[in-house]
Amino acid sequence: MKILFICNKSPWPAKEGGPIAMNNIIEGMIALGHQVKVLAAVTNKYSISLDDVPEEYRKKTGLELAFIDLSIKPVAAFFNLFTSKSYHVQRFISKTFEKKLIAVLQRETFDIVQIEMLYMSPYLNVVRKYSDAKVVLRAHNIEHLIWKRVAIEETVFLKKLYLRHLASTLEKYEKNILNKYDGIIPITKKDAIFFSAETSIPVEAVSFGVDFDKIPYNENTNPEHALFHIGSMNWIPNIEGVKWFLKEVWPEVSEQLPQLKLYLAGREMPEWLKNTGLHNVIIAGEVPDAYKFMESKTVSVAPLFSGSGIRIKIIESMAMGKAVIATSIGAEGINYTHGENIYIADTKKEFVKAVKKLYKNPELAHSLGQKARLLVKKEHNIKETSKQLERFYQSLKAASART
């Protein structure tokens, strides 16, 4: 099959959740022998140059880039309050991107067009006009649910009202667009239940898959027995989670375990976080090699109270044999067993207890990580998830042939 991936970010470099998820499935399809073409947005928030992309990657993916301006325009954002349109989605509409997409579709013929992320859905009509391909949405999250949860956590009244408006208009758009696709590919089974209830078109949950041939794992390493969190810090759920952890959990943990260190890594660290001055909190910022950073520590913390879908860095941490402490929301999409392959903590008290238990028992942390790795090997292997996606594509084409 020939597959076009339309991405809201470039899948290269695969350094954060979205690009990692996109790149892994693109690589998986290539490994199965399919021909792949990638058209990705370059934005002011996530910008790369085609010249920076390795020639081998450009060749095998046919990667092309087109600019979308995602800068927030205060006037447009304000007047959006008086419309029923989703401001999140409107920001992704770009004549530059549309022209590039039309050029690709006029030049090449595809069997499948996969739109990555809801926000690229405005280009669905363009695909329909210029292609006979089956068009599927890969839903990394239930997007409006993220913003509902963010609104719930917000304490500033006016900001809370605005976030509710954003969530409401996004929910309306998300539910209305589904039936215009030929198939929906959620990243978790829980999300698949939601989408199946909203549409009659085929829905298939295909989880994030780890390439165990590429992810580092060495039983003989001697990592520092310390906590770490890694994630893009321009994503609201990460910012809120880290802020809560530092305010509510870390003071008590640090007082009781004064030798314990917490390392924070990720893109776009805010200034307030760089200058906290908290005891034994080390701001690593954007690290050159995420795997090496994760490999050097023992316990991952994921204090997420909003968000949806699946957290890529949690899966990767588990695949590397790391102990993970996460909230129920952070661990959504993972078929975990609390206390066996992950610790779930939703309150300050539960986080403090879990951190103390794992820090005082390094062998327990090691055992938790080993069982986590086995779980991910069983349920999140890229070779199996790629075959599952391939079968879904084939079923859509077969259904079309019968009608």
The CATH H-level superfamily of the largest domain is: Glycogen Phosphorylase B
**Quick one: overall form?**
globular
CATH class of the largest domain reads: Alpha Beta
Topology, number of strands: 12
Instruction: Tell me the CATH architecture of the largest domain.
Output: 3-Layer(aba) Sandwich
Label the structural class.
Answer: alpha/beta
Taking the alpha carbons of the first and last residues, their distance comes to: 20 Å
Describe it for me?
Helix 1 (17-31) links the parallel strand 1 and strand 2. Helix content is 46%, strand content 16%. It has a six-stranded parallel sheet with strand order 3-2-1-4-5-6, sandwiched between helices. A six-stranded parallel sheet has the order 9-8-7-10-11-12, sandwiched between helices. The chain has 16 helices and twelve strands. The chain folds into two domains: 2-209 and 381-402, Glycogen Phosphorylase B (Rossmann fold, 3-Layer(aba) Sandwich), CATH 3.40.50; 224-379, Glycogen Phosphorylase B (Rossmann fold), CATH 3.40.50. Helix 7 (143-153) runs antiparallel to helix 8. It is of the alpha/beta class and 403 residues long. The mean pLDDT is 93.
